[in-house]
Amino acid sequence: MSKAVVYYSLSGNTKEAAIEIARKLGVKIFEIEPVKPLPQNTVRQMIVGGMQSTFGRKPQIKGVPDNIDYYDEIILGTPIWAGMPAAPVNTFIKKYGIADKIDAVFTFSGGGDNDRCMAQLSKTLKNIKNQVALADRNSEMAKNNHDKLEKFIMDIK
């Protein structure tokens, strides 16, 4: 079975975890990138990104190969924006029609709203077997990220 890690990252949290997961599993990794980047200003990023996620916007993306359906299993990574998956992740799921291949999800949140995000993702992703909620590196709860990530990787193997 072939696996791949597909992720979106704005601040680098999700990217670091994605690289670690892909390295330890020995799988391909692909970064979802919006065609039109978010504003550089952090406050504006939060406003625009949060609104996109809240209202279900699906911005154009790049970075994922058209043959992503070649992979049998996809491990998906997303930051949580306003309690929802990041808008580029929603685009990825819709655009490529691979929801049934996504069986593991890792999320990053600065506010601990993982349950709401996973509830939203679960409406579309019916085959999730493994998930892990990680905390933004600037959060006090981030001290548990390493152990959580290691367990997540072991559960996927």
Structure described in brief:
By secondary structure, the chain is an alpha/beta fold. The protein contains five helices and eight strands, in the order βαββαβββαβαβα.
- From the N-terminal CA to the C-terminal CA, the straight-line distance is 11 Å
Output the number of helix runs. Answer: 5
Listing every helix as H and every strand as E from the N terminus to the C terminus, the arrangement reads EHEEHEEEHEHEH
Protein structure class: alpha/beta
List unreliable stretches of 5+ residues.
Answer: none
Average pLDDT metric:
89
Structure description:
It contains five helices and eight strands. It is an alpha/beta fold and 157 residues long. The strands form two sheets. Strands 1, 2, 5, 6, 7 and 8 form a six-stranded mixed sheet that branches. Strands 3-4 form a two-stranded antiparallel ribbon. The longest helix is centred in the N-terminal third of the chain and has 13 residues, at 13-25. The relative contact order is 0.18.
